[in-house]
Write a structure and sequence with these properties.
Helix 3 (69-79) packs antiparallel against helix 4 (134-146). By secondary structure, the protein is α/β, with parallel strands linked by helices. The termini are far apart. Strands 1-12-15-13-14 form a five-stranded mixed sheet, with helices on both faces. A three-stranded parallel sheet has the order 8-4-9. The protein has a three-stranded antiparallel sheet with strand order 5-6-7, with helices on one face. The chain is built from nine helices and 15 strands.
Length: 282
């Protein structure tokens, strides 16, 4: 009888382990979708510098007005959107073009969980200090044009305007998929916008949420300091508690997306191209 009990317990443990593994594996295979949110006007993304960095701001604006630059940005964004199928040998630009530059070092300040604009890539000629993406490509091309060297500094997204706004070197640029807002203008000066975007809802395929109204009473993830978080807060303003969306903030988009796939939140609100990149990557 003891032998039978021991065998039964061992079998139970094995079955439990298999079930647990299946759940964990299944979590990674959860299908997600995204839907753009109808907005009155598109958001504008721009580069940011300290108010005192007028020379750098003028160079950035001159560069963004140059022939072919906006087309280069569009190509770069498209290149970095589907991370599972990228051929880096065909990258729009490579960091090695800066090898012979002799000028000062520009510091690009960013938060690298925001593909296709910036994401972690620890090796290869498409990254600088472990970060790649369309904003990195943009800064490489800018530095190539003005004979600068380039380094990338990562930090929490919501601290970037303050970090760059207090820069005294005149050589620091916020390049982080940064929407132009009146609040951020208090800390930094924005360049000419270089692309536009809208916000989107990422949800499980079976839910397929399309509007903010459908998210009332549900727990929705948003990255700290992003326009997605701001959009939800504005939606909630003046509404009774039972008519509001419950916000669950995260320091990084990747953490928020993982929480969605593990059923910890009902949806995620984030930039449309970032949403597309997350859903494609799974």
């Amino acid at each position: 009888m003891k032998k039978f009990k021991t065998l039964f317990i061992a079998l139970l443990v094995l079955v439990t382990a298999v079930v647990a593994t299946t759940i964990l594996v299944g979590c990674n295979k959860v299908k997600t979708v995204y839907n753009d949110i109808a907005q009155e006007e598109d958001e504008e993304y721009a580069l940011g510098v300290a108010h005192s960095s007028t020379t750098l701001l003028n160079q950035l604006n001159e560069f963004l007005a140059s022939d072919g630059v906006l087309e280069f940005i569009t190509t770069s964004i498209a290149f970095h959107t589907d991370l599972d199928n990228i051929d880096y040998s065909k990258a729009p630009i490579k960091a090695s073009v800066l090898n012979d530059n002799t000028g000062a070092t520009i510091t690009m300040v960013t938060e690298a969980t925001f593909a296709p604009y910036e994401y972690v890539l620890n090796s290869g000629d498409s990254q600088v200090n472990g970060v790649a993406g369309s904003d990195v490509d943009l800064m490489i091309k800018f530095c190539e044009t003005y004979n600068y060297k380039l380094r990338v500094k990562q930090m929490d997204f919501d601290t970037i305007p303050t970090e760059v706004g207090t820069d005294k070197s005149g050589l620091m640029v916020a390049a982080a998929g940064l929407s132009v807002t009146e609040d951020r203008k208090k800390s930094i000066s924005f360049s000419t916008p270089y692309t536009t975007t809208v916000q989107a809802i990422v949800s499980l395929e079976e839910n397929n949420y399309k509007t903010l109204d459908e998210l009332v009473g549900k727990t929705v993830a948003a990255q700290n300091g992003t326009t997605g978080e701001k959009l939800i807060k504005e939606y909630n303003e003046g509404k009774a508690t039972d008519k509001q969306i419950i916000i669950k903030p995260f320091p990084a988009v990747t953490n928020a997306f993982l929480e969605l796939k593990q059923f910890g939140v009902d949806a995620l609100v984030i930039d449309s191209l970032v949403a597309k990149s997350l859903v494609v990557k799974g």
